[in-house]
Fold this protein.
Amino acid sequence: MMKQEFTLSIFSEDHIGILNQITIILTRRQINIESITASESAVKGVHLLTLVVRTSSDMIRKIARQIEKLIDVLKVFVHTSDEIIYQEIALFKVTTKGLMSGSVIDHVVRTHQARILDVSPEYIVIEKTGHKSEIEELFNQLEPYGVLQFVRSGRVAITRQVKELNSYLQEMDEANRLKPEEMETYSKN
Amino acid sequence: MKTEKETKQLTAQVNGYENITGAEALLRSLIEEGVDSIFGYPGGAIMPVYDALLDYKNKLSHYLTRHEQGAAHAAQAYAMVTGKPGVCFATSGPGATNLITGIANAFLDSVPTVFITAQVVSSLIGTDAFQETDILGVSMPVTKWNCQVKKAEDIPDTIARAFYIATTGRPGPVLIDIAKDAQIDKLDYKYKKCTYLRSYNPQIPLNTRSIDSAAIMINHAERPLILAGHGVLLSGAEKELREFAEKTGIPVAVTLLGLSCFPSGHRLYAGFLGMHGNYAPNMLTNQADLIIAIGMRFDDRVTGNLKKYAKQARIIHIEIDEAEINKNVQVDIEIHNDAKEALRYLIPIVKQKSYESWIREFRICDKTEYDAVIKSETKPESGKIRMGEVVNLASELTNGDAIVVTDVGQNQMVAARYFKFSEPNSLVTSGGMGTMGFGLPAAIGAKIGKPDKQVIAFIGDGGFQMTIQELGTMLQYKIPSKIVILNNNYLGMVRQWQDMFFDKRYASTELVNPDFITISKGYGIPAKKVFRREDLKKSLETMLAAKGPYVLEIAIEKEANVFPMIAPGASVSEVTLNYKSKK
């Protein structure tokens, strides 16, 4: 079956070991994680993990159900790249000497919509947000001038759909026929 | 003047709390959850809990097994026969890791179990302390949920959550790892059962639209077949299943773990599915026009080659675990619900029907299987004793009123094939994992769970020796389970595969066995060995009449194979009735 890129947005309780539980599901099926980002979501106490994996559409459906089955996972969303707006961020540390020759720096900042974060006699730190390919393009351009250090983040993504996690949480509560205030009792680590 | 501590204690009392140790809080929480039996094995880190157990002797019976694996299997068997969660204690490190086979077994067979392991003192966690192991990490892939407790005050809530998770939805094992200092420290105890977790929703709203469509499909079917699995037993839907089948006239085939959810003697009983199942349900799976799968997961031992599995049929899948739907087999209607709830809604909206000619096809297949396999297996006239005749005889002598426990291998398949189950939850077997050594400890757990029932375990000579030390547990607690050792001096099932698929190259399957009778007697358990057919009935009767534990060893035909068989990679309709081994 054809493999393609999927973005998994996993909303979970902020408990120890969630990431481990998720990677166990992926490792067992020999699926590599292309990128991963973890942070607190817009809902207090709810964590958001964004994973990018390459696999078949049949497999991603099964994986999403397995992940959603985890007790501490609230909801899993699966998206193909055209269903989301996503970004990655990269930082470049480039030698000042190399970059200052000619109008390179000006060109770079303008055409790539990059930002300069820090300048010192030895190096300049440049920030670039965009898709992986855009970041790679900038990297290739800067490489001849001496890239001292290069780091990039995993993906963060936002969906094009309107329905929000909050409405799913509400649905779950209604299904459990419980008042929202009782949700507060579940706050322990 | 009262000290600060005393004031605190008084305030707590006024608010309905009691100041007790973590160990005591654990036991009190278990009692609150209705636990009365615990299987386990002590050790350094769990000593405070065992010490507290002495004070709760009249409410909690603890059964000391001879190995933690035995405790895990016994707890699982207890849960399978009672429907109550099985509880198991083990210490840190090796105690905890010894549970893993048992936990994995309960996980694959969805049995509600709560495993309590002790952990080293919290300040030492992560230092490679003596008997420290990362049991959370080790057990994560084989538990429904696990959690570590480092503070005494977290014990009651965590236990409440553990029982809620283990017993609701698709049940399964949970593991709670409690640091030694949390067992010793005091807390203000008050118990509140857990009924809600926002990230876990076992109460699935009834999927009425899907069930309505399913009813239309059922009403129009011409050759429908029900496949009933463990989920029917777990949801307590035996009555509903029977009512549904009787109203619609649809034959019911069952999986290994579904056995006993539908009476084996019922006119609509179609037989046992899978690799060594009955001929009719396997063959006719590929001729049905509609399959109604209830609480089963299309395991590979049931489906055989998926590419040739029920391609002609429409499939309705009633299943509580959404991850199981469309996992192995693509279905036409998914009903993500509890079996009992779904059936209750379904029964009034399906039509009363009967399928005489379709049922006749099952009976024709049954006759074929009887002539080719069953007759010679259950009523042989010559040669050595066969496993089938032992099980058949035990079934007749008890009138099917017994709890059957099996080990794994030929003994298991034969017991599943030839015992006539009449009561729900009367088979205790290791299905998904196929754990050899399961039988003996499971026979102990089953008898403790149902002391008034006759418990008969069919165990091979191989599996018996994997947990043979549990005879000590039988001795200590005088557990009157009946152990039948079907001894063919071989690892029979592996030998069968070597015979059929490995050119009769019998690599490491022949066993030189000890004298099981002397061993049993060494444990103070009456035992007898049978060699001849004419002594079989009498010996079984003696065993069944024995008041206490009993071991009956039966010398079995060495080179017998279990048939029918769906060879690995073959389709369900390519089931083999007999096989002449190449000379």
